[in-house]
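SEQUENCE-TO-STRUCTURE ENTRY
===========================

Backbone structure tokens: a row of integers, each naming the local backbone shape at its residue.

Task: work out the structure tokens from the sequence, keeping to the layout shown below.
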Amino acid sequence: MTKKTIRKVVFPVAGLGTRFLPATKASPKEMLPIVDKPLIQYAVEEAVAAGCEQMIFVTSSNKRAIEDHFDKNTSLEDELLAHNKLDLLELVHQIVPQGISCIYLRQPEALGLGHAVLCAQPVVGNEPFAVILADDLIDGSPVCLKQMTDLYEKHPCSIISVEPVPNGQVDKYGVVDPQALYDQVFDIKGVIEKPAPEQAPSNLAIIGRYLLTPEIFNHLKTIPKGAGGEIQLTDAIASLLKQQQVLAYQFTGKRYDCGNKLGYLQATVEFALKHNELKQPFLDYLKNLPHLSD
């Protein structure tokens, strides 16, 4: 297989975010802020830090706020400049760095993650590409996707990021059947979507970072609908395994599952405690909360 640079990242952002209603009734879940940046911006910053150049958002009709966030806002920039708020102006400019392009595609029906990825094929073309799920906020150094692209330099094949989860929670994830190659890297022998604990081949769960070869599109087009009547990316990966090697990579860093309220709150607190301006006053506030230890 000819090795190519990972330049393009797909962000499936068409979901309804029902677990955060009513907050997500009119605002995309990906725009929920962690301290002072929305989840989707953290995801894009990770892609940029990994050297990617083209951000492909697979959206739905109620996700205009995402497009607006990454678009130029001339009136805001003029206002900041007129009031000499140059530090804030620089923050706005950094949302989309120079050399980074954003493309928006519509997912016409809610047919699952695999279908959302398939919608990006006209833009991805015949290139390997990454997929980032913004719900999974990962704090790592280097960022998770950079760890994966570095691994891709050694093994130019599809790579899926995994982490161990409690055995009682494997039915919430796609789970891999791994064969250890070396530290943190596994050859995948099989993958099962949301197995019962007694049927799970391991406790290594797939999380929201993927590097995929373009052959995945052929499998997404031909696999039958899976769990929930949706086109499951996990099923397409299981089919791809019959033709190509796929690796699992146990990333270094901490994942926050911001697709649920507890994970979102945990991320908010821990990122606030690392924020240059907020960490000390916020820590003082937490220490003085009444009944915190009750």
Remarks:
- The mean pLDDT is 91.
- The CA atoms of residues 127 and 214 lie 6 Å apart.
